[in-house]
Amino acid sequence: VLDPVETLCSISTPRETILHLLRTSTRPLTPSQLQEASEETSRLNSEYQKIPPNFVNPSELDIPGRALKDRYKTILPNPETRVCLRNPAAEEAGETERYINANYIKGYNGVPSAYIATQGPMLNTVHDFWEMVWQERSTTIVMITKLKEKKEKCELYWPEKEGSYGRFELRVAIVKECDGYTIRDIIIQVGSESRQVRHYWYSTWPDHQTPDCTGPLLRLVADVEEHRQSHPSLGTTIVHCSAGIGRTGCFIASSIGCLQLKHTSKADVLGIVCKLRLDRGGMIQTSEQYQFLYLTLAQYSRQLVNTDCGSESPVPVPVQTGSTTGEMR
């Protein structure tokens, strides 16, 4: 029997109540409960629809020139966790900060600033994106969108081989094709200082749908986590799709959920999504994405059981949650 959802109710509540709900709503499930829940489409849709989105009112961001740097006018960074860019060039120009549509996101066990969720760079924000990578000492970037999906979703922000982006010189050192995604090791140089960034590009997530199976996402999550664990001193992991809330939210939520299952043998999808929305409004953009998250973690829990039993991980199970409604960002 599945545990009841705790402290969740309608989104039509005062601001303080919404924040309280996002902080306290929880539904931790064992692997068997997770398997059962992942098949209850109607209940998951109802659960998802009751989660407050916590979107930002534009009046909360009184920043000159901000609108020119937002890919979508309704997808804005929550002020409390917003990434603020600071650099010598901005200070010389009399600016205290430069705006970027990005938020710090807490990780597993509430680790602060484990991730940054951001929109896909635009032509006029590519330099800002690399400023953020440099400022946060990020050495991992996860991109989950094509450059174009009927219309532009993300500006190409790295060179084929070498290129200049503002004060940054970039050089692609290695390109490796994996099953469902591509890895690039990029060298960033400013003056005499250089750093290496690993760029993961998951370009096979279909437009307006969820993936046909959980395999590529789980492999990407495992690959990124292995890279993070082998470099414990690394900075914040930057994740983006187009708007920075849909597919970005799925990746971060899957990463946190996998760690929960690995360390506690339970996953709290509801609690994860609520906490993500505290940091960036609208994370997990559709009910289909929410169900796909349950399916992904249910599949991971099966892999853990098979691994514990000494057998190989099973072939990823195809899922039937593809949707042709709503824009997947």
From TrEMBL:
It holds the Pfam family Y_phosphatase. One of its GO terms (cellular component) is cell junction. Coiled coil: none annotated. The active site is at residue 241. GO terms for biological process: signal transduction. Residues 44-300 form the Tyrosine-protein phosphatase domain. Its EC number is 3.1.3.48. This is protein-tyrosine-phosphatase. The lineage of its organism: Eukaryota, Metazoa, Chordata, Craniata, Vertebrata.
